């Protein structure tokens, strides 16, 4: 109608553009054949129709001579990734960005050329260091149609497949050291990665920079933290332990760029935790310095409990058993020892075994578990530390005490493997554990053995104020009684223990007996030496006659009033004040003795009273039993 009415050229050109935008293929064909449209307008109409996806309009224009490889400036729009810019592009690129599958298919069928580079991307990277930077749409490196199809990916993947089918060399060509797969990973486009892998892309293609830096696609995936892409690469057979020029693996890259999910996926997929980089750092060491260091134990625990084999080619660098011992995870320890006990005594780089690590870390339950399963406690680390030295280094007394309790239990159950410096009897004495003391004595532990400080079990029990433990040790032949008594006297809490030890000394002293100076006639007679001893029956004896074998009622330090008076009357200066004591018999008779020293006097007074009391208690018990029998 316009043509018949004699419309002008500008009117025809505007009409063609409108027809291209609204899909009027017949009108577009008439207008393009009228020779009333300029080449630049025809090209713009073609690109506009490609953006809108009108294949019939595109077909009409191409069939009527519009260049299918023309370049024109057009507004390209995309929601994701965001794009709203006027760009010089070809009809094919416009169709790719606009996700128009039928148009792309048609243009490729009619021979549209590929290989043109256009600046549409949002990513740029340094060709020397390889560092990536998101710079924004149309500011990145110029790339061809396949790269465009990856960044502006059509959800079904048909556009990318069409391009790869049309030109397979897209898979191998690279841009500044990077391939199409690298771009898909950088865009974190898992679907595009899958399409590329189906097309046969090389997942081990090295990424190289002009400075000699070299890496693999799996390193890039670990760096950007795209878990789905990483899984795709691993499923496709990518080497999880491939190294960069710095010696770093994908596992190390994940730790450096704080990607905990990728770290876990790589560990579960068999990444070697025993490898180190050129600086000698392992993945676990790097992870301990990362932002997810606090969650590292949970990540490795999850990997171990997942049922997959957490692999380490060098146990001195990393061992699952050492790790579990350090964090005190009993569930992991159980799982590991059920599989194999082979590594239970293996040493790491510092010479530490799992049990040494648990002792150092204060993990008491892990320590108990490892002892139960036969861990050797005699092994020393490279710096000479053993289990006991590590336990003693703990600042917390309760933790130290708990470790020693576990060792004591193991000694009693005879489950300890290896010789060690643990003084079980000394610890039992310190803790006041009477049952343990008895069992240890039955096992042959030396009751008078000395620890590294020269203390016997009795001294330790006295120092801790464990009176019952002191009594039990003394009953079983403990020596160094005087030293133990002096120790007890220095500690205020040890009064009860002091009494027990002093009672034992006093009893032993009077039952053994010694020469005492006996005073006669209440101080008026001449004193003379007598061999005096106490009998268990309660008799004090210094001869054979009945007057020299008396039943004691009590013994008192010092002299009676009459004795002191008689001594004064004789003008005797008493220079031995403090060494005199008197014994009161059951009949009321008083006998005065003089010991060699004040200490001996105290022993005689206490010993006589103690043995007398015990004898009376024994008689009372016998009479009570007799009455009950009757």
UniProtKB/TrEMBL annotation:
InterPro entries: Ankyrin_rpt (IPR002110), Ankyrin_rpt-contain_sf (IPR036770), Multifunctional_ANK_Repeat (IPR051165). It holds the Pfam family Ank_2. Keywords: ANK repeat, Repeat. ANK repeats lie at residues 213-245, 246-278, 350-382, 420-452, 453-479. This is Ankyrin-3-like isoform X2. It comes from Punica granatum.
